[in-house]
Write a structure and sequence with these properties.
Length: about 220
């Protein structure tokens, strides 16, 4: 019995070797030559990579002319990379939209809930704006008073006997002007934030209605 199994195994192994050798002789899997079109569009062949194929798409064929694989050229590689980058961007945007949709559905129950949060955000920004506007008004009054004082000193006064501008007064004027610029910039940012809040919540409300099927 053992002898019979040994003979069967040996016969099977021998058959596998003969099949592999026959496959190689038939040229169905071994790489035989290269083919491409050069920059001028002419076909080039060779049993090794033809010089004119550098940077081009190159087909690797077996002895029967079957394409085994394709070596990617510069243009194809660049196009593939650009395509992959675009696909990755689209995939990321799709994931962000899906995450945003889940957040909307999990956070709010009605459109009124979204509008309520929007109004709270806007009220807070409006209150901040009013404080900033009042501060700017006070700073401008201070700047006006300082300008009146500075006008009595050189080099701003036309009087020949006018004293030199004191350092503390000059420093106070500079600090007031710089602070005023900061508050004015803050006011611009506040108004931009209000516009952004309105835009974002409008988009959220519209999307929430779509997800809920609300007209």
């Amino acid at each position: 019995m053992i002898r019979i199994l040994t003979i069967i195994a040996a016969t099977f192994a021998s058959g596998a070797v003969l099949a592999a050798q026959s496959k190689n002789r038939s040229g169905t899997s071994e790489e035989a030559y290269f083919r491409c079109r050069d920059a001028k569009g002419q076909s080039l062949y060779g049993d090794s990579m033809p010089p004119g194929c550098q940077g081009q798409d190159v087909e690797v064929l077996n002895a029967r002319g079957m394409v085994l694989r394709v070596i990617e050229g510069d243009q194809s590689r660049a196009a593939r990379i650009a395509r992959e980058v675009l696909e990755a961007k689209e995939r990321r945007l799709r994931q962000e939209r899906e995450q945003r949709d889940r957040m909307l559905l999990e956070t709010y129950e009605t459109v009124a809930d979204i509008e309520r949060l929007r109004d709270q955000r806007l009220e807070m920004l409006v209150a901040q704006r009013r404080v900033t506007e009042q501060t700017i008004s006070n700073m401008r009054e201070r700047q006006s008073r300082l300008e009146s004082q500075v006008a009595r000193f050189k080099p701003y006064s036309n009087k020949p006997n006018a004293p030199a501008l004191p350092d503390h007064l000059a420093e106070d004027m500079v600090n007031t002007v710089n602070s005023l610029r900061v508050y004015e910039s803050s006011l611009e940012k506040n108004l931009a934030e209000q516009a952004e809040v309105k835009s974002t919540f409008t988009a959220d409300i519209n999307r929430f209605k779509e997800l809920k099927g609300i007209q």
